[in-house]
Amino acid sequence: MNKFLVMAIASLALFANAADSKVTGVHYFSEKPTTINKHCGNEKHSDSSCFAWKPKGQWKQSAKLDIVNDDKVEGKYSYKFTLNHGWSRWVLEMKKGKSVDYSAYDRLVFYVKSADAKYWDSFKVIIESSKKWYAKELSELGFKPNNLWQRIEIPVADLAKAGVDTKNITKLLQFSWGGGVAGGHEFYLDNVCLEKGPRQLYDIPEPKVWTPDMVKSNPFADMSGYELVWADEFNVDGPPNPDNWKFEEGFSRNRELQWYQKDNAVCKDGMLVIEARKEVKPNPTFKRGGDWRQQRKNIEYTSSSIVTNGLHSWKYGRFEIRAKVDAKSGTWPAIWTVGDIGQWPSSGEIDLMEYYKGKILANTVWGTRKRWHGEWNAAKKSLNSFGQGWEDHFHVWRMDWDENYIKIYVDDVLLNKTDLSKTINPMNWGPKNPFQSEHHFILNMALGGDNGGTPIEKEFPAHFIVDYVRIYQKK
Predict the structure, then answer these.
(1) For residue 317, what are the contacts with CB-CB under 8 A and spacing of at least 6?
(2) Deepest of 163, 254, 317, 450, by most Cβ within 10 A of its Cβ?
(3) Positions in the chain whose pLDDT score sits under 70
(4) Are 48 and 130 in contact (CB under 8 A)?
(5) Which residues are within 8 A (CB) of 105 and not within 5 positions of it... i.e. 6 or more apart?
(6) Could you count the other beta carbons within 10 Å of the beta carbon of residue 457?
(7) 88: left (phi over 0), alpha (psi -120 to 50) or beta
(8) What is the pLDDT of residues 26-68, one digit of tens each?
(9) Vertex 137, ends 134 and 138: CA angle to 5°?
(10) Parallel/antiparallel/unpaired status of strands 298-303 and 258-260
(11) Cα separation of 117 and 124, whole Å?
(12) Which residues fall within 8 angstroms of residue 218, CB to CB, at 6 or more apart?
């Protein structure tokens, strides 16, 4: 995809004519991306030699394609696919009316990475000629969903064995994925090429190691026009300040595993420490035939959740929280707000930070025409993408919220932006626009449940540590 200098090694003429038995080297399927429309990024390609990714299947917008330069194998660019639906696929193919001759080459090669694919029922690669195709799950080709770049090779001889006419490939490279896909799941693709002769091996980059100097020296220096209206620095040892926080108690939501109790939150050495523990004790609300909270005979995990509900609420401002995430299996720490008026989700929810299953999330949600079902603007970023050791340090989450937009950052990197002209509740279960009314604040560490994954007992206790919460509003 990237190496423009070697394009001369194997020009597109090799594909327009019969295969040359003396061909050597590498042919790349696209030139330098300039813009997605001009490049092979969608169906609006104009270059006669362009290869284009086209959606196929019931959902024509099954994935969003970006051309990015911050995560690649070699060169300058790679493809990033963000999935929206399951049971669909994207197809890389020539401009209409052309086919490609693979027969002069030894192997089709591409580099791929994903952490999400482990949740998918299938993640296949498919190559077609007329009425014949080669199909393999990526796992059969050696792919592992560990969020590291991996080289995948498909021998052209294997295509021929499957009955594919290697001189007339009509669908160059397809990816399909099945159940388990969720909106926001990602995979990356780089260096799609044909090789003949010795393998052209490229150095696969090691994950960068995160260090504090990667953060701008003072990312929030521009505070002109703002004044501090509320803060908790957690400087007094003992329980959180009761003038600022209330405790949730018991089993709460999302079928989570933890029992919330006061004992698991303490201020010490200028920090709020929320501790999730593996401890077994009787469930005082146990009731046979009750709901999921009552059906559990025992409590198996405990944690804490503190809220400002009924004490403090805000509309608009700059919210700044310095915290450290314990990224252990099954943990689900969160920094979030919920609107004071109406039923969830029509009341509105803002997730400045959630962590689970190896991802950092930043979300907003508001109401739909179906009760208790929300419209989400969700963003996910793999923990590995921040670099090794990121979870060993404190980071600053920030929300800039006004009457027009909500912007959520970590260490001055924008994670999510919500246009408030689009966050209108269609029903009357909350305010017309839940992000133009007051919200209260929540800090908690959940475990398991609908999203949190499976805890590993030997990894407990786990800790969510908060240095401060500061809220500024315009003067």
Answers:
(1) 226, 229, 401, 471, 472, 473, 474
(2) 317
(3) 1-62, 74-76, 85-97, 213-221
(4) no
(5) 23, 27, 156, 194, 195, 196
(6) 10
(7) beta
(8) 565 654 333 333 333 333 333 334 455 665 554 455 677 777 7
(9) 110
(10) parallel
(11) 10
(12) none
pLDDT of residue 28: 58
Give the pLDDT score at 209.
Answer: 79
Q: Provide the 3-class DSSP secondary structure of residue 174.
A: strand
Q: Are the C-beta atoms of 439 and 337 separated by less than 8 Å? A: yes
Closest listed residue to residue 225, CA positions, set 407, 351, 402: 402
CA 357 – CA 336 distance, rounded (Å)? 18
Q: Could you give the CA distance from residue 468 to residue 243 in angstroms, rounded to a whole number?
A: 16
**According to the model, what pLDDT value does residue 93 have?**
58
Angstrom distance (rounded) from CA 150 to CA 331? 28
* Tokens linked to 317: 């401002």
Asked if 137 and 124 count as a contact pair (C-beta separation under 8 A), the reply is yes
The tokens for 464 are: 């969510």
Q: What is the pLDDT of residues 413-441, one digit of tens each?
A: 889 999 999 999 999 999 999 999 999 99
Q: What SS3 state is found at 402?
A: coil
Place of tokens 């295509």: 159
404-421 in b/e form (b: 16+ CB < 10 A) is eebbbbbbeeebbebebe
Kindly tell me the burial class for residue 362, based on how many C-beta atoms sit within 10 Å of its own C-beta (0-12, 13-18, 19 or more).
Answer: buried
Phi, psi dihedral angles at 371 (to 5 degrees): -60, 140
The token pair that represents 42 in the structure block: 């969608």
The pLDDT, as a whole number, for residue 340 is 97
What does the longest C-alpha to C-alpha distance in the chain come to? 80
DSSP-based three-state secondary structure for 224: coil
Question: Between the CA of residue 228 and those of 83, 245, 352, 411, 475, what are the distances in Å?
Answer: 40, 18, 19, 20, 9
